Amino acid sequence: MTLTRRGALTALAGAGLVSAAPRIAIASGEATLPEAEVNDDGLHTQSWFHDSFLDLAEDLGEAAAEGKDLAIMFEQRGCPYCREMHNVNLRKPEIVDYIKANFVVLQLNLWGSREVTDFDGEAMEERALARKWLVNFTPTISFFSRDSAGIGDKSGRDIEAARMPGYFKPFHFASMFEYVHDGAYKDENFQKFLQEKFRRLEEEGKKPSIW
């Protein structure tokens, strides 16, 4: 089930009705990890991102062998929301620890020229892959479940578990990773997942920050 931009906006509109993820206790206050570095392409990046030969089927297979899912982040030079994602969300240890434990993360350049091989075996430049997958803005994160490893001749656009179409605040951002890794995307949309989490937290007497 792919989260559309409209669905994402609907979920974000309900931010006042949702709170933090049950297994990622997002602390309030300042982030504690160092700021992201900027690579030669002008992209903010993390040292723990996957170093890949850009064969996506192989990357997903490697992730699945470790019990992890695959997240592919499309970013671009000068993107203020990409910078926000790196210097806010990815400076929170509780978020980064969860992602590193459960995902292989691959960063692609929306306008990049490196050759990437789609899951269906078609090789093309990063920017062509972005067009093929209908990625139009940054950051966009495409999620692929470990259950899809070895799927065969389907494009990534056809086997996405979910998509994060733009910058999400830390709670929503962390929750999307949980939504995929827990397999909740198979049974419900992201908005419902958020609402159910908030209901459970209310029952537990918890009211964590959504920021």
Number of strands: 8
Write down the overall mean pLDDT. 87
As residue ranges, the low-confidence spans are: 1-22
Shape: globular
Helix-strand category: alpha+beta
Strand order of the largest sheet: 4-3-7-8
Would you give the CATH topology?
Glutaredoxin
Number of domains: 1
The helix/strand order is: HEEHEHHEEEHEHEHH
> How would a crystallographer describe the biggest sheet?
4 strands, mixed
Oligomeric form of this entry? single chain
- Provide the β-strand percentage band: 15-25%
Q: How would you summarize what this structure contains?
A:
Helix content is 35%, strand content 16%. It has 211 residues and is an alpha+beta fold. The longest helix has 14 residues, at 190-203.
